[in-house]
Amino acid sequence: MERNNNPLLVVISGCSGVGKDTILLRMKELSLPYYFAVTATSRPKRPGEIDGVDYHFIEKPKFEKMIENDEFFEWAHVYDNLYGVPKRTVAQAIAEGKDAIVKVDIQGAATIKRIEPEAVSIFLAPPSMEELKQRLVGRHTESEADLELRLQTAQKEMESQDSFDHIVTSHNNQIDQVISDIDDIITAEKSRQKQAGDFYE
C-alpha cells in the first residue's frame, strides 16, 4: 500500500490484558512498514534476549544520566529497574521516513501526547470487561487477588479512552482485524495531515 511520505509518531496504549504485546508481535511478523520503538531498561539482559530487539540494555548510571538530559519521551521506575522510550531512535526512524509506533501505558501515552501533540494516539479496548476478565483468567498467571487488582486497574484505565484520538476494539481471536483497523487509522491520519499541510503551504 502506497503512503504519503509524512511519517507519523503513533502511540498505542490500552488496558492491562487487552493484547497489546500480542498485536505488536503479529504486526512485526507481518513485516509491516513501521518502526517499532524498543524500550530501554536498566535491568540485566536475560538469557536469549537480544540488545536492541527485546530492549535497549543500558546500565543504571548511564540511564539516570539520560533522564537528566531529557533523552526519553517518558520513563518509569518498576521493581528497582528503570524503563523508558528513547527519543533518539524514534526521531531517527521518522527522519528516515518511517512511521514510528510506540507502546506505552496510559500515563506514558498522556506524557508523549503532551510533548508531541501531533502524535496519533490509539487506545486498544476490550469488547467488554467480562471478556477481559475471561482472557485474564484464561492466562492462569495471576492469583485471585492479582486478578482483581488487574481488573480494577483496567476499569480505571478504560475511563481514559476518550482522551485518545482513536479507539480500536480488540476482539479475541481477531488480531489481524485489529491490525487492519490500526493500519487504516494510520493511513487516514497520514492523508489528513498531508491535506492540512497542503492547505497551509
Short description:
This protein is 45% helix and 20% strand.
Folded structure, characterized:
This protein has 201 residues and is α/β, with parallel strands linked by helices. It has helices at 20-29, 60-68, 87-95, 106-115, 129-139, 144-158, 175-200, and strands spanning 9-14, 34-36, 40-41, 56-57, 72-78, 81-86, 99-103, 120-125, 166-169. The protein has a single domain (9-200), classed as 3-Layer(aba) Sandwich (Rossmann fold). It contains seven helices and nine strands; from the N terminus they run βαβββαββαβαβααβα. The chain has a five-stranded parallel β-sheet, with helices on both faces. It has a four-stranded mixed β-sheet with strand order 4-3-6-5. A hairpin with a 2-residue loop joins β5 (72-78) and β6 (81-86). α5 (129-139) packs antiparallel against α6 (144-158). The longest helix has 26 residues, at 175-200.
